[in-house]
Amino acid sequence: MTIGRASVPAKYLPVLVTGCLLVAMFVVGGIRYEGFAGGQVILNVFIDNGFLLVVAVGMTFVILTGGIDLSVGSVVALSTMVAASLMEGPGWPPYLVVPLVLAIGSGLGLVMGYIVQAFDIQPFIVTLAGMFLARGLCYTIGTDSIPIDDPTFTAFAQTRIDLFADLWISPSVIIALVVVGVAAYVLHYTRFGRSVYATGGSEQSALLMGLPVGRTKIAVYTVSGFCSALGGVLLSFYMLSGYGQHAVAMELDAIAAVVIGGTLLTGGSGFLFGTVLGVLVLGLIQTILSFEGTLSSWWTKIFIGMLLFVFILLQRLFSRRSGR
Amino acid sequence: MTEHILRMSGITKTFPGVKALQDVTLSVRQGEIHAICGENGAGKSTLMKVLSGVYPHGDYEGEIFFEGKRCEFGGIRDSEHAGIVIIHQELALSPQLSIAENIFLGNERAKRGFIDWNRTNYEAGELMKRVGLRENPTTPISDIGVGKQQLVEIAKALSKKVKLLILDEPTAALNDDDSAHLLDLLRGLRDEGITCVIISHKLNEVTAIADSVTIIRDGRTIETLDMVTDHVTEDRIISGMVGRALDNRYPPHEPTIGEEALRIEDWTVYSPSQPDRKVVDGAALTLRRGEIVGLAGLMGAGRTELAMSLFGRTYGVNISGKVFKDGKPITIRNVQDAINHGIAYASEDRKRYGLNLIEDIKRNISAAGLKSLAKRGWVNENEEYRVAEEFHKSMNIKAPSVNSVVGKLSGGNQQKVVLSKWIMTEPDVLILDEPTRGIDVGAKYEIYTIINHLADQGKAVLVISSELPELLGLCDRIYTLSEGRITGEVPRQEATQESLMHLMTKGQE
């Protein structure tokens, strides 16, 4: 009972902690480094990590049901590869290539989701298989990096959308933010979104409430596949190439972002907004290290590792309290 | 008189808000088979957990003397070291390991840290002979039936040099042949000097095998009887188990009984883990609008299994039988079908099957009936809030707001959320499985009032309960279930605790 003092509902606590952390990092950076405090630093984080944000959105859906998707990095790479090879080889136009890539990603997700559901296999194993499969398929297309010089793609890569006062973003950021907005709306205002939370909260009780648990599980992997493919398209805007070595271990960054964003790995609790904060935290760590200049980039991993430990412990405390 | 191997005295064990055991006394003589009888929830299993150290010393009050020595067990290892082994109803075996590995699990036959496989398998074979288990010691546990797994548990106990063997409902999951074999084995062990304590609901088995019986009711010892000198019969045990008066803990209710709402015929369900065992056997039930019907049965009788198999085949395999809704035959393939046909089922295990504990009240209430709040997949959140707020008031759910997390509510309030959830789906038939389990007395009264109110609205209600007074106080008509078969149908006016208990313990003829 909370008498006489304002209290934050427990479910918002992890997001709040991540938000505070982000603000703290920004303030510390602003004090330490010249030129840090300008808004462009945050915008650059968005520009450099737009594709990660999209992939993490898909991952959020999967983790909210209590699952995991290890295939996302490979699907991103496969998407860049398919896009680059089709545009450079036969010279397909982007308006054909992009929908095809999105269809391939969604299809892979659908198949993995179906296997998880129909044969009741741990998502870890199924998506691990998908991860190897998609990465392998990249190399059947080509072992080298394929450059993209399609005018539409290069336009997307080089366009700067000016905001006010010298601040700017890339078109990818807008796409990523639209994805976040749509996904947040779906999660919070549709029956599908409710099923996602209910399945992750307690699959058994969701079944006994007559919720379409099976369809929900298949759907979240499809969503994740779609987001990975879209992330791949954004990455090929950013890199202007397709390559089998793109986005190696990106699935781990996505999982880290979701967890740091406060989503419970066992499912049922979390917010998409938290995932956005999680991606920003990861990006800002890199930014701070580049401002520092002397530290090796491996420090990024060390910080991410420490943060993950802290957040997992935090979640443990949180779930123990609400489990009583 | 032979000496007592075990004396427990003044045992009191309190859980938050509940006194599970109150000043319980238990004396077991050396080399006898001692039965413990009582209704579900009387405290039998709690008492055995105290004895075996699952609840360590200091967690309870009272004293335990074993072989004349005062014991303060800090855990299961301590009690096993003293020679007390408990075999739980849910067997504790590792399914992928072999019989021999399971027998010596935690107690491996090893030389300098390496397992001596020859000795392991040889000694396992010897122990298996003692319990009459003819299998290869290297066979994995998952390849043998439950009856044989029970024998492996006993062999495991023997390997630990057991002096006092405790069996919790050993025959509940066994077929008749396996049960008979097990009882023979227990007699054999007694002749070897091993004392047995057996918890059982099957009174015919108790009278057949036990030398003495202790009856526990509402967490207290009622009496200990010697089977021979006290001329104990099943009737005698039953009167000890139920001997308690009905008081006005139940709101008065005048039923208005209408048309038939749901009828099942020849309903048969097989166990998913042992496809040759019938869990429900040719059951027939009729529920009428406005009527509250009880379903009585002891643990393992198949009550929940009957309800869940009916509710969208959520339990069991090879389900056969007919279901009629309002006189018309229907087929129910899944939960969605059941809900669409106006059937609702509130599980006995609220926390696991009934609620999403990490979600708030309003989302739990709306979960099953979300369709009525959504248009083309989009949920109307304002409407959801309004509906939840209505239930919050009408059901008197004690929580600061409908945004409170369900996991933090008391049992009674959680149950009100579960009931709200199902009422929202506008069912004609409600199956309530142990609706007042783990709920304090005041909240029970509220739940009873809600159930009466539902019946007055013309809904048919089936209440499954382990508490006979509850069924007698609430229901208009009571079915009894024993070993998967309906053994009786009694109107409330004619039912007594004794007559019901007779029907509930009626074995296969």
Overview of this protein structure:
The complex is a heterodimer of chains A (324) and B (509). By secondary structure, chain A is an all-alpha fold. Chain A has helices at 13-32, 40-64, 72-88, 94-118, 123-141, 151-158, 171-189, 191-201, 203-208, 213-239, 250-260, 272-292, 298-323, and strands at residues 146-147, 161-162, 168-169, 241-242. Chain A is built from 13 helices and four strands. A two-stranded antiparallel ribbon of chain A has the order 1-4. A two-stranded antiparallel sheet of chain A has the order 2-3. In chain A, a hairpin with a 5-residue loop joins β2 and β3. In chain A, α8 crosses α10 (213-239). Mean pLDDT of chain A is 88; it is low at 1-6. Chain B has three domains: 4-242, P-loop containing nucleotide triphosphate hydrolases (Rossmann fold, 3-Layer(aba) Sandwich), CATH 3.40.50; 260-342 and 427-504, Rossmann fold, CATH 3.40.50; 359-425, no CATH class. In chain B, the strands form six sheets. A six-stranded mixed sheet of chain B has the order 6-9-10-3-11-12, with helices on both faces. Chain B starts with a strand and ends in a 5-residue tail after the last helix. The mean pLDDT of chain B is 87. The chains are: A mainly alpha (324), B alpha/beta (509).
- What would you report as the Rg of chain A, rounded to the nearest angstrom? 20 Å
Strand content range of chain A: under 5%
Shape of chain B: globular
Relative helix content of chain A: over 70%
Secondary structure tally: strands of chain B: 24
Uncertain ranges of chain B: none
Helix count from the secondary structure assignment of chain A: 13
Number of domains of chain A: 1
Structural class of chain B: alpha/beta
- Which bin fits the share of residues in helices of chain B? 25-40%
CA-CA gap between termini of chain B: 37 Å
Q: Please state how the strands of the largest beta sheet of chain A are arranged side by side.
A: 1-4
Label the CATH architecture of the largest domain in chain B. Answer: 3-Layer(aba) Sandwich
Q: Biggest interface and which pair forms it? A: A-B, 31 and 35 residues
